[in-house]
Fold Histidine decarboxylase.
Amino acid sequence: MKAKLYGLESELKQRNIEYNLGSLYTLPHPQTTQVYKRFIDYNPGNLGSWSDDETQTYATTKMEYEVIHDLIDLYNGNQEKLSGYITSGGTEGNIFSVWLGRSYLEQYCKPNEICLLKTSLTHYSVRKAGQLCNVPQFLIPLNKTEWNIDIQGFDSSIQNLYDQGYRGFIIPLTFGYTSTGTCDDIELITQKADKLKRKLKGIELFFWIDAALNGLITPFLDKDFHPFQSPYIQAFLVDFHKFGLVPYPAGIILYQKQLKKLIEQPIDYLAETDSTLLGSRPGIPAVSIWTMIHSLGKNGYKGLIEEEKENKEYFLEQITSVLPKTEIVTHSHSLSCGLIFHGLKSARLPQWIEEKYGLYPGKTKLLFFPNEKREEIIYKCFFLPHMKKKIITNFISDLEKSAIYSNNAL
């Protein structure tokens, strides 16, 4: 047993996280690792829902209350109208949102009249959520320019499904698609939804925003970010174990407080109710998130985000210079991008570069408006807090040294 544990420790130490350009793994802040070391022996649990009651018996539940309300402020939300809890991350947040959406729509529609709409870039956990909640799923085409929900495709998808008898639509809007960093146009889509609701008798729509990737980026680049400004947005999720510098698992879901009654369950053996998905939850993520919010603060996070934004811009400038045939897919408020190397053989980088920088050549099936199907090899690049300009310079240097540069640069 000891040998196996020592082996694991050795393996983890050998991982060079500094060179990890292609995955969403980063090292947590030292203060949060100290939180785990300090409190893990006490194994605090946060069973129940704590965001609506300021008077808490336990420190960890009080911290969860404070974290939720700090996040409501960050997103310019209404403290009286929003609720939420600390999740294990985006997958739980998406499953919770589909469950909440189905429960909401069942007030207005028959169960067999409800469906889930998503794009070919939507996170796979949404597909999982639809399967768990037994909701039929359909694809909305992407816009060819912006790589987000195409507004005409959205309109025609709703109308076609309406003609097939569907009346309730569960729709995730993504703020930071994992493969590309692109974002759905929340304002444009909710405005179109309003027109459709006036036009098509008996339809209801449930939207939530999957901001697992960009939820801790956009507020520091756009001070007027109001995800709950539209009355159509019912929930919003964000991860803290990415750009929040908190150990796994750590995410947050915020949702309209009036919906809680649709999913709330009494805890038979306690004088409490529970409106979470997991029920029993660890208390230490609440302490970790609370610690980062109070140690870094808005200015600290803003500094990290701005530094990585500069790194991303420098990286894309260099890529364009070295491999000008590269298609770059991204969004101005994202610290990620998708790269499609049209000029390379098989659209692939050399294997040694992939391995050195943690780059995975994901083969992605895509549906664009009106009905164009494509398959592309997309390299995902993430500019997490561990990514420094020196590593980017090394990456570009390695590209220039490789045979692909001499063969494809011009």
Remarks:
- The chain has 13 helices and 13 strands.
- The two ends are 55 Å apart (CA to CA).
